[in-house]
């Protein structure tokens, strides 16, 4: 009798929860915890519920809207790539060629002699 093996087809797929992918799930969770702490602090300071609830609900709506918009716009790793690209300089300016003229030709072409 032959053994039956089940193939797990979702191994390489990113984690997803209701449309949120990857790190955005953690961002939403952290934001909700911060909103809960803000609610507790404002309540303990004596602010009225008439003031606290609209502020917390507005900030919560803004949090949900922003996180879902970022998730749909950039995907799982796109935001990190976007931020990394913004961190690159537009151009490099060299006022002297001394750095390049001091390089040895053997140091530049090390891998040409190796055969892989």
Arithmetic mean of pLDDT? 80
First-residue to last-residue Cα separation: 46 Å
Q: In terms of structural class, how would the helical and strand content be classed?
A: mainly alpha
Strand order of the largest sheet: 1-2
**Order of H and E elements:** EEHHHHH
- Using only C-alpha atoms, the radius of gyration works out to 26 Å
Proportion in helices = 55-70%
Morphology call: flat
Plain-language structure description:
The chain is mostly helical and 116 residues long. The chain is 56% helix and 3% strand. The chain contains five helices and two strands; from the N terminus they run ββααααα. The chain has helices at residues 23-44, 49-74, 78-86, 98-101, 105-108, and strands at residues 16-17, 20-21. It has a two-stranded antiparallel sheet with strand order 1-2. A hairpin with a 2-residue loop joins β1 (16-17) and β2 (20-21). α1 packs antiparallel against α2. The longest helix has 26 residues, at 49-74. The radius of gyration is 26 Å and the shape is flat. The two termini are 46 Å apart. The mean pLDDT is 80.
Topology, element by element:
Elements: E1 16-17, E2 20-21, H1 23-44, H2 49-74, H3 78-86, H4 98-101, H5 105-108
Antiparallel strand pairs: 1-2
Helix pairs in contact: 1-2
Keyphrases for this structure?
single chain, 116 residues, mainly alpha, two-stranded antiparallel ribbon, 5 helices, 2 strands, 56% helix, 3% strand, flat
